[in-house]
Amino acid sequence: MLFRSSFSFVSPSSTPYAANFPEVTLANQNISDSGAVYAYFKASSTALELLGTVYSDTSGEIISAYTNPQTLYGFPSTLNTTVSDTYRRTGAYPQVGLTFVSIGTMNYLVDGYGTLINSSGTYNNVIRIKKREVGVDSTLSPFGDFASNTSSTSYEWVTTAPSGSYGIWSISYDTTTGGFNPDSYSLN
To answer: CA of 114: how far to CAs of 15, 25, 108, 117, in Å?
Structure first.
């Protein structure tokens, strides 16, 4: 069976949940055979912030909104730029009585600048961003509450093109303890 998926950045007003995020300036959608995921962002001259996400399929929807948005990137970002952010997100899956709460901190440092050479080509004027995120994800349910501690370290190589930056390469190390799966570790 072939699984189809389509990912694109779109005008927020073309998505079904934009009204849930009044400050939205940018949205993306990932439409697949199994459902759709929408992400809503606020882009300004100082930051790109994640305002929330919505997962929708035939069984319902999960709307997650940040009461304190998560800063993904600070602007401008040059060598030795640091960004620190705290965030809080809540979401609900009312069809099964679940509520989700995530709180955390993210810190990043632009710790490199130069040329990146990999199997897809040579990229000039690239910055490397080291991100460290630590958080607690809680699931509240009629059957009990579950919490897990998460930590993630990632390295991202991003172009600094005047017409717009884009990610080229990333590596992340993620660890989760507690919750439904007592200990989990992944490398992407």
So the answer is: 38, 31, 18, 10
